[in-house]
Amino acid sequence: MRAMDATLLVGVEGTRAWSCPQRRVIVGPMVFTSDFDSGNMGPVQLVTDAEQEDLLYTIDVAPDCAGTPHANGYRSWFFFGLSVAEPIEMASLEAKVPVEVPVERGEALEDEGDSKHVTCTSTCLEEGSRMKADAEGSKSTSSDSAAGNDAEEEEPAKPEMTKTELPQVNCEISVVLTIRNLNNHRKLFRDGYRPWCKMPGKPWSRLPDTPQLGFAIVEGEEMGIRWRHEASRGSGTVYYAFCAPYSYLDCQGLLEDLEDTFSSCPSFSWPDEGRGALRNLSKSINDDWWPKAGTDLLFRRQLLNRSLQGRRVDLLTVSKASGLKELEVWPPDLPCESPQVPKMAERPIVFISARVHPGETPGQFVFLGILRFLLSDDPRARSLRERFQFKLVPMLNPDGVACGHYRTNSLGLNLNRHYDKPSPHQHEGIWAAKRILSSWSKQGRLLFYLDLHGHASKRGCFLYANRMAGPGQGWNSGFARLCQMNSPHFELEQCEFGDEVDKEIEGREGEVLRSASSKPTGLDSGNRGKRGSGRVAIHRDCRLCNAYTLECNYNKGRATRPIVPPKGLLGADPPAAELFTEEPVPYAQGVWAQVGEACVVSILDLFGHNCHSRMLNSRGSLHSLLGSTIRPRTGRMTHVKDVLPQGVGLTPEDIAARERPCWRSACGWATATSSAPAAPPRGASREAAAPVPRAWSAQTSELRICGARAVPRADVAKEEVAPRPGSVLRRRRTLSSDPRKAHRGESAKVRPPEVKLTALAH
After folding, report:
1. DSSP-assigned states of every residue in 471-525
2. Which pLDDT belongs to residue 365?
3. For residue 339, is the peptide bond before it cis, meaning its omega torsion is within 30 degrees of 0?
4. pLDDT at position 568, please?
5. What count of Cα atoms within 13 Å lies in the side-chain half-sphere of residue 133?
6. Compositional bias (Low complexity) spans (predicted)?
């Protein structure tokens, strides 16, 4: 087996390949391109094997900040396209080794002995390269030919570079692509995950797991994946990526569209214009369902800061249009531009951000789902706009997104480890976010913080939250319970409530955190822990109770939990919420968007009045939910004292007032009956629809903390923990065997608990 690659045979080109992960090259009869926003592609090799009929290509994943002093060990994100080279591209190829270009004829030659074959190696295509006048019979010279040496004199100087015959490019070509130099994501791909693909004229989707593609994991010191690709001349460019991409330019185009639609006249009903804007937003989520646009809403787009490379870090404001004349006053060191935004001091602030890790695109689609819901005419969205003001940052790390990085910015820094002491010269996006969050916190206006991420190892969609002792923990974990009630894809059992002293290893997702020189960098050499992450630093420095990191797996969850429709709103949910199976489903853009919608609906359930709350269908109430919430395990004290939410009523009277009927005729709290059956979702027939279980919040209402993680009672009911010296005794509930005491209406017939004394170690 031998490799044909000029980028490796010529030292200068090899260095250039790593320093330019966004480029365009021709290797054999194929064109590989990553010269676009978010593209990432390292050196490409054409490998010949006598035992293989297909062309074998290897593509290395370029690390973050490749070719710079800030190169590091994050090698997960790849995004490139390939197509069959056109004759004009083959003719303009300035190769480093001899190239034979086929003569263009009216019909392909059937006789294999008479056909002329193409031999070439990879090279970067310069934009101003000259086209060769006579392609027939011409031969490309080496890099030394430009100095006056003839091609005939150069051929014997490189005898090891023998010609490789390639098939006629006018016919269909079958190639095998191998992605090398990946971080260790074996668990993810063994669990059924596949790269994403975009065919010409079709949306992004996962590669199908078919025998024709032959997907396989390449074992070895460095992980790799392999699959087959078939193409023909004129069939267009096919793109592959680690996950469904969403580039910086995509985000800017969408924001400009929304700004033109909603910022011109907030009181306009926009039956056509607004629906068109939400249609484009749904296309970004790859969803053929979109709601109508809401009325009387406020949408503002401002510049929060500039990245180190000059890109925009946008701040969006979504709320109900207000006639207040008092304007928001920004910290003087922030370049927040016009248009100015009303202060609306009576409305607590909900802050949501995404893409601090540029390669974690599931968080971006969660953000788009939140934005689509807040701009819709859904009555729950209207209540959210009336009660809160939402401050949204779609991309905290635009440089990392544009450069095709996985977790770092242009300086190779993981921004989500520097919230404790951010610098405007190194951590531009999070420095501005921390600055403005601190300002709102001092004014007593900040209520909620949510940072959106993707996760490669733990399955499901779940929260990382802070651990507190006291009533604040009830409000803290109550949000997690409500998220599971509002989304079939959210998994409460996977949520973790940790402390800032808990160590978090940087390589928890399989990354080998080494620089290009194989020496540990300052960031990678030690465990910074969680104190530098956004949810811990904001919780500690801003004294915020509800500060979370939402993690969404790239692949799927452990199970799905069908949910009932919102009370009195049949057909209001997106298709990803209408499930009748408990089997895990592969995640896609629409699934992540539905999780985002569930998050903001849960905020309304927790801090506002939701006329269409799913708690109405579960025979429960917010008071009972907060009373039986997840608590930290005893014997382990938190370093942060109890913190309560700001700007909302917290007394039992305030909680009871949120569940009283309001003036709206469709308020479910006025007409709800505990025995009313749930109606089937939109489009589901009564014959085909499986019975929808009672709200899952009731089935998972009894949990305990195992370490810092919530574990279902069913999984630990028969667990016996042997007492150890210094252990703490705690009362734990186990299942009764008396069938007469089974709960009604539950398929699993969960028995009422009885008390048993066991020991839990520290």
Report:
1. HHHHHHHHHHHHHHHH-TTB-GGG-EEE-TTS---TTTTS-----TTSS--TTTS
2. 97
3. yes
4. 79
5. 0
6. 673-691
Rounded to the nearest 5 degrees, what angle is found at the Cα of 592, between the Cα atoms of 599 and 271? 75
Beta-carbon contacts of residue 227 (< 8 Å; ≥ 6 apart): 176, 177, 195, 207, 213, 214, 215, 216
Residue 219: exposed, middle, or buried by beta-carbon count in 10 A (0-12, 13-18, 19+)?
exposed
Strand runs labelled E in 336-477: 349-354, 389-393, 446-455, 461-466
The type of residue at 222 is E
Question: CB-based contacts of 298: which residues, under 8 Å, 6+ apart?
Answer: 266, 317, 318, 319, 320, 321, 322, 341, 342, 385
Q: Residue 641's pLDDT is what?
A: 66
> Do the Cβ atoms of 298 and 327 come closer than 8 Å?
no
Under a CB-based contact definition with an 8 Å cutoff, are residues 232 and 85 in contact? Answer: no
**Pick from 253, 276, 328: nearest CA to 298:** 328
Q: Of the candidates 658, 486, 626, which has an alpha carbon nearest to the alpha carbon of residue 566? A: 486
Three-state DSSP state, 570: coil
104 is catalytic: no
Q: Is 747 exposed, middle or buried (0-12, 13-18, 19+ CB in 10 A)?
A: exposed
Q: Point out the residues of the chain with pLDDT beneath 50.
A: 1-16, 95-168, 267-268, 270-271, 504-529, 631-636, 673-762
Would you give the DSSP letter of residue 739? G
Which run of H or of E encompasses 607? helix 589-607
Q: Tokens 């015959």 belong to which residue?
A: 165
Classify 553 as helix, strand or coil: strand
DSSP state of 207: P
Identify the burial level of 756 via C-beta atoms within 10 angstroms of its C-beta, where 0-12 means exposed, 13-18 middle and 19 or more buried: exposed
Query: d(Cα 413, Cα 400) in Å, to the nearest integer?
Result: 10
> Cβ distance 396 to 415 under 8 Å?
yes
pLDDT of residue 567: 80
Distance between CA 403 and CA 400 in Å, rounded? 5
Number of neighbours of residue 708 by Cβ within 10 angstroms: 17
> Are 474 and 381 a contacting pair, CB within 8 Å?
no
**CB proximity list for 252: less than 8 A, separation 6 or greater:** 312
- What's the rounded Cα separation, in Å, for the pair 653 and 650? 8
Task: Tell me the two tokens of residue 598.
Answer: 């569930």
Which pLDDT score, from 0 to 100, does residue 526 have? 33
Q: Which residue has the tokens 């995950």?
A: 193
Tokens of 406: 């996985």
Q: What pLDDT score was predicted for residue 426?
A: 93
Q: How far apart are CA 250 and CA 259, in angstroms?
A: 14
Which single residue is written with the structure tokens 């960031």?
Answer: 523
Cβ(42)–Cβ(516) under 8 Å?
no
CA gap 43, 75 in Å, rounded: 14
Residues 6+ apart with CB under 8 A from 517: none
Q: Which of 551, 582, 597, 702 is catalytic?
A: 551
> What is the spatial distance between Cα 139 and Cα 132, in angstroms, rounded to a whole number?
10
Both tokens of 19, joined, read: 């320093």
* Token pair recorded at residue 551: 């993690």
> Which tens digits make up the pLDDT trace of 343-360?
888 999 999 999 999 999
> Which of 647, 253, 270 has its CA nearest to residue 443?
647
φ/ψ of 618, rounded to 5, equals: -95, 5
C-alpha–C-alpha distance, residues 653 and 395, integer Å = 40
Exposure class string for 429-466: b at 16+ Cβ within 10 A, else e? bbbbbbbbbebbbeeebbbbbbbbbbbbebbbbbbbbb
CB atoms within 10 A of CB 14: 15
Write the DSSP assignment of 397-425 as a string of letters. -HHHHHTT-SS--TTS--GGG-SSS--TT
Give DSSP secondary structure letters for 30-84: EEEE--STT-B---EEEEE-TT-SSEEEEEEPPPTTTTSTT--S-----EEEEEE
pLDDT at position 169, please? 52
